[in-house]
Write a structure and sequence with these properties.
Rossmann fold; alpha/beta; single chain; eight-stranded mixed beta sheet
C-alpha cells in the first residue's frame, strides 16, 4: 500500500513538473517596451528595424549594415537583457561596426524579472520565430551567429528546429547556463553540425557552463575538429564584466583563422 502511494505521488509530481515546464506562456511585452524605449533614447549609431513573425509583431533588430562587408553577424543577448547590453553585446557590436562588418543585434523575448531557465524554455517558440525573421531579413550567405547565455539556449532551440545551411559559424559565450537544480533541455548534436564553433566561457563561470565547455571540448577532440575552439577567459564570471576587450580579441582572432 505504501509503495503504491509513493508511486502515485511520484507520478503526479512528474506530471505537474512537465505541465508547468510546457505551460502556455507569452513574452512580457510591457517589460520589452520599457527596454525598447531606453534603447531608443541613447542609440545614435544604428538603425532600429521593427520585425514581425507569425506569433507577434514589432520587436527590434538593431542594424548596422555595410554593403562592402565580407560577412554578417547576428548577436543574441542573454536572459532578460537587450541588444545593446554593455558587457557582451555592446563591445562586440561596436567592434564590428568599427571593422565595417554588417552587424544585427536582435531583441529576444523576455519575461518578468526573477524567472528561471525553465520559465524561459516556455517561450522558445517565440525566440525561434524571432531568429528566423532576423535571418530572413539579413539575407546573408555568410552569417556568423554569436549568442550569450540564454541566447545560446534559444539558438540551440532554433538550430534543432531549422535548417542552418546559410550559417557559416557559431560563437557561444557562456553557453549551458541553467539555474540551480535545473538541467539543460535543448542540446546540440555536434555530430550533425559541420560548421566551425567557438565556445567561450569564464574561469569563474557557472558550474553548468563549465560542464558544457568540458563536453564541447571532448566532442571537438573526438571529431578532430581543428576549426572549432574552446577558450576560457581568465578572471571572468558569467556576465564578462570588464572583459569586453578580451571577448573582442578572442572573437576577432578566431574569425580571422577561418
Amino acid at each position: 500500500m505504501h509503495s503504491f502511494l509513493k508511486y502515485t505521488y511520484s507520478s503526479s509530481l512528474l506530471l505537474l513538473i512537465s505541465f508547468n515546464l510546457y505551460a502556455e506562456v507569452s513574452p512580457n511585452k510591457q517589460r520589452e517596451d520599457s527596454i525598447n524605449n531606453q534603447i531608443i533614447e541613447y542609440l545614435f549609431d544604428a538603425d532600429i528595424i521593427k520585425l514581425s513573425s507569425s506569433l507577434e509583431d514589432n520587436y527590434n533588430l538593431v542594424m548596422n549594415k555595410n554593403d562592402s562587408s565580407q560577412y554578417s553577424v547576428l548577436l543574441l543577448h542573454g536572459r532578460g537583457l537587450y541588444p545593446t547590453e554593455p558587457n557582451v553585446m555592446e563591445p562586440l557590436r561596436t567592434a564590428f561596426i568599427d571593422q565595417e562588418i554588417s552587424t544585427f543585434s536582435l531583441q529576444l523575448p523576455v519575461l518578468e524579472k526573477g524567472k528561471s531557465y525553465y520559465d524561459y524554455k516556455n517561450i522558445f517558440k517565440y525566440s525561434d520565430e524571432r531568429i528566423t525573421s532576423a535571418i530572413n531579413f539579413i539575407q546573408s550567405h555568410e552569417l556568423i551567429i554569436i549568442a550569450h547565455s540564454c541566447g545560446a539556449h534559444m539558438l540551440f532551440s532554433w538550430i534543432n528546429n531549422n535548417n542552418i545551411q546559410n550559417i557559416s559559424g557559431l560563437i557561444l559565450i557562456g553557453a549551458g547556463a541553467v539555474d540551480v537544480d535545473q538541467v539543460m533541455l535543448d542540446k546540440l548534436d555536434y555530430n550533425i553540425i559541420n560548421i566551425p564553433i567557438l565556445n567561450i566561457y569564464g574561469e569563474n563561470d557557472h558550474g553548468s557552463v563549465k560542464n558544457h565547455s568540458m563536453l564541447f571540448g571532448k566532442e571537438i577532440k573526438r571529431k578532430d575538429d581543428i576549426s572549432s575552439k574552446n577558450i576560457e577567459i581568465r578572471n571572468s564570471g558569467h556576465n564578462y564584466l570588464d572583459q569586453g576587450d578580451s571577448l573582442v580579441n578572442i572573437v576577432n582572432s578566431w574569425l580571422k583563422s577561418l
